[in-house]
Design a protein that fits this description.
Strand content: under 5%
Helix content: 55-70%
Number of domains: 3
Number of strands: 5
Low-confidence stretches: 1-17
Oligomer: single chain
Number of helices: 25
Shape: globular
Length: about 625
């Protein structure tokens, strides 16, 4: 009965987003009906096996029952069931000719077939790791790591995504919290499986992963961030008998969750001494094929590692040449570009005090940059989303391993805004000349404009949960350049250096990621290259390089995506001539910005053909 209802609910949502078709008079399913059924099967398969994604997009329980009450099964058996269900659904979608569909269904077809084919490609070449292990779409070779995986993602998810607005929500929260032990134990099972096959993480990753777990178990249970956040949610919602709910949460944390974390810590401690030091996945079973699959997964392309590496080197040379001109004009002439940027990093005039007053000032400045950019968005776009973005500090327990800034999408129903999180573990890591660009990337016109626009489009719910790494990150890097193009940095040369350093950082990623995973660079070689080339401090460079170790090829999407958007823009400018308007181009890309890059290129070229002057 629930499955039938789920089909009806999905069909209704799909018809709203894609336009309903009249039933075939022959009694045989039409191509559109076949597609709707196949898309519905993929929807149920995905959300059932990745229940966190259902919560993030506010999916009705009828479509995938019970998703709000449990966590993803990351065990070996859970991984096998998830990939099998998604592969089966994907085959049905791939059997449908996209040319027989209407434009909206063509977009959905491209989203589902291209993204899931890429996501599943790593699991076709290796029998370890986890599919949909990070941000609901990424494959990860190491199930537990310092940047994501259950030990990081579960607390962050329950703290920032799981709603508690009334007593019923509190009961659901507690039921989900009770499922965390199974999720953690399943992850440990899968992690052991990978180690037994030879897919043991490098020693420095094991150590950093262990540090995250130890930081979680160190406080008393009643000081654990999950418990404190749940109490705060209960209080904000005005739930009656709130202490009863919080007491039950405390018992679950004490009896189930913290011991599960401790079991993971114990195992990490056992294997630490036997872990190798080599950084790249070339050393893992079938590692070369795995990296090729990861490049495909994360870049929407079939580029080779060598092609990516050479692109990175060329971009590094171009960007550093431009930065050298600005540095010299400001009186910085001695040493390499990297040397001079390192000097800027520690100049007192650019550093916020590392105390509560300094952190407050930093947050205030970041919020001002976001608000100011909101006022200028009409110069770049025709339509803007209603959802807003809020700036928050990264939770203290995950500061040491978290990125310098990151973004979470809003809830489609408006119950939760978009969140731009900024890491305040040390304000010296955020010289003031770098903050504008980080804010434009993570908030507007970057990730938030993309994410909120996607949430507000009338599309099937599965589309709201998915995004191409290349188009999403490529868009955010392109957004950084848009800010410069409308004059934000005209009177701020150091801010413009911050923008160029951020772009340089994405070019350096092409070099270091492929360096470690294909050219057998060491972790230290990659760190040294990053420090010398772009002037990041060693601690930040270390955190960045270790991120690429556990998320192979993910960091390639930024620069490769930006380059493809810029090439597409030049194609439009050349074809349209005087009729070209940056607002129209940006809107065309933003309207499908989360889709795989090949589909974006197809759609924009169709628009160019329709808009270009004839004759």
């Amino acid at each position: 009965m629930k499955l039938n209802l789920a089909i009806l609910v999905f069909a209704a949502i799909l018809s709203v987003g894609c336009g309903a078709e009249k039933p075939s008079s022959s009694g045989q399913p039409t191509p559109l009906e076949q597609f709707d059924a196949a898309a519905q099967e993929m929807t149920v398969a995905f959300f059932s096996h990745v229940p966190e994604a259902a919560t993030q997009v506010g999916l009705p329980e009828e479509i995938a029952p019970g998703t709000s009450r449990r966590m993803m099964d990351r065990s070996v058996a859970g991984e096998a069931a998830r990939t099998e269900a998604l592969e089966r659904a994907l085959q049905k979608l791939q059997a449908i000719d996209a040319a027989t569909l209407d434009p909206d269904r063509q977009r959905t077809h491209a989203m589902l077939t291209m993204l899931f084919d890429g996501m599943l490609s790593p699991s076709r070449v290796v029998d370890y790791g986890t599919t949909a292990g990070a941000w609901t779409m990424w494959y990860m070779p190491f199930v537990i790591n310092q940047n994501s995986g259950p030990t990081v993602d579960i607390p962050n998810f329950l703290n920032s995504q799981q709603p508690v607005t009334n007593a019923a929500d509190a009961e659901i929260y507690l039921e989900r919290l009770a499922s965390v032990r199974r999720a953690l134990d399943g992850s440990l099972d899968s992690y052991r499986h990978g180690v037994q096959q030879g897919a043991i993480p490098p020693d420095f990753i094991v150590e950093k992963s262990l540090a995250v777990v130890q930081a979680f178990v160190a406080p008393a249970a009643d000081q654990n961030p999950m418990y404190l956040t749940f109490k705060a949610k209960l209080e904000k919602a005005g739930v009656e008998n709130a202490s009863d709910y919080s007491d039950r949460a405390l018992k679950i944390l004490s009896a189930d969750v913290i011991p599960a974390y401790q079991r993971i810590a114990d195992y990490l401690g056992e294997i630490k001494s036997s872990a190798p030091h080599d950084a790249g996945i070339w050393r893992l079973p079938n590692g070369e094929a795995l990296y090729a699959a990861m490049i495909r997964h994360m870049t929407d392309s079939h580029l080779t590692a060598e092609e990516v590496h050479q692109t990175g080197l060329a971009e590094v040379e171009r960007i550093t040449t431009e930065m050298d001109v600005i540095l010299r004009s400001e009186g910085y002439t001695d040493g390499s570009v990297g040397d001079r940027l390192q000097a800027l990093n520690v100049e007192p005039r650019f550093i916020y005090s590392n105390d509560p007053a300094g952190r407050d000032k930093l947050l205030s400045d970041v919020r001002a940059y976001v608000n100011d950019m909101y006022a200028r968005l009409p110069e770049l776009f025709r339509d803007l989303p209603e959802h807003r973005v809020e700036v928050q500090a990264v939770p203290e327990f995950s500061q040491d391993s978290a990125p310098m800034g990151y973004y979470n999408n809003p809830a489609p129903d408006g119950s939760r805004p978009g969140y731009y999180f900024i890491n305040l573990r040390d304000t010296a890591l955020h010289p003031s000349w770098t903050l504008r660009t980080l804010s434009y990337h993570e908030a507007v016109p970057g990730h938030h404009l993309d994410g909120a626009s996607a949430m507000e489009r009338e599309t099937p719910p599965i589309e709201k949960a998915l995004a191409s790494n290349t188009s999403g990150e490529g868009w955010a890097l392109y957004a950084e350049q848009l800010a410069a193009e409308i004059g934000v940095y005209d009177d701020d040369p150091f801010g413009n250096l911050g923008r160029l350093q951020a772009e340089l950082h994405r070019a350096v990623r092409l070099v270091t990621d492929t360096g470690m995973h294909a050219k057998k660079w060491s972790r230290e070689q990659a760190i040294d290259y990053m420090v010398a080339t772009e002037g990041l401090d060693r601690a930040t460079s270390t955190s960045e390089i270790e991120r690429y170790v556990v998320w192979p090829a993910q960091a390639l999407g930024y620069k490769l995506g930006q380059l493809r958007i810029l090439a597409l823009r030049e194609e439009a400018r050349e074809a349209l001539g005087d009729a070209f308007d940056i607002r129209d181009f940006n809107q065309q890309v933003l309207n499908v910005a989360s889709a795989p890059m090949p589909f974006i290129e197809q759609r924009v070229r169709e628009w160019i053909a329709q808009t270009a002057p004839q004759g």
